[in-house]
Amino acid sequence: MKKPILILIGFIFLLGSCSTEAAEKVADEFHKKLDEGKVDYIVENLVDHEGSSEENLDEFRAFLGGVVRQGDHENRKKTTGFNKKYNNGITTVKLSYTFEVDGELVHERLVLVKRDEGYKILMVTMHPDESYVEEFTEGY
């Protein structure tokens, strides 16, 4: 009788450890603020600052500003499941999306890192060519 209980507990632990709900909430907030054009909010509150220079943050701010100026992101969809990775005590989650700008399909990948205060955005890649997005984020 003890074996089924241990298996059930192990299964519940496995489900809990694979969840990306917290990372997906950050991604949802990122998309909401991006749609509102609130680039400074994103950089100040959602982006991982650990190891980032002010110059890196300014470059990311400029990148997001350019994304906002391209126009409305329509038909945003989460495309694949997720990729959660543990490496040297660091947890990262990759989430993939597609959206359209002026009828052109764009592939997006967010890489989030788990910090003490929760998930933060480590990287955002957007490009019409999905292979470019995959190549750029394959190391995470």
Number of domains: 1
- Which blocks of ≥5 consecutive residues have pLDDT under 50? 1-17
Write down the overall geometry: globular
Q: What kind of sheet is the major sheet?
A: 4 strands, antiparallel
Major sheet strand order:
1-2-3-4
Computed Rg:
17 Å
User: In sequence order, what are the helices and strands, one letter per element?
Assistant: HHHHEEEEH
> Into which percent range does the helicity of residues fall?
40-55%
In CATH, the topology is named Nuclear Transport Factor 2, Chain: A
Q: How many distinct beta strands?
A: 4
CATH architecture classification name: Roll
Rounded to the nearest angstrom, the distance between the terminal CA atoms is 42 Å
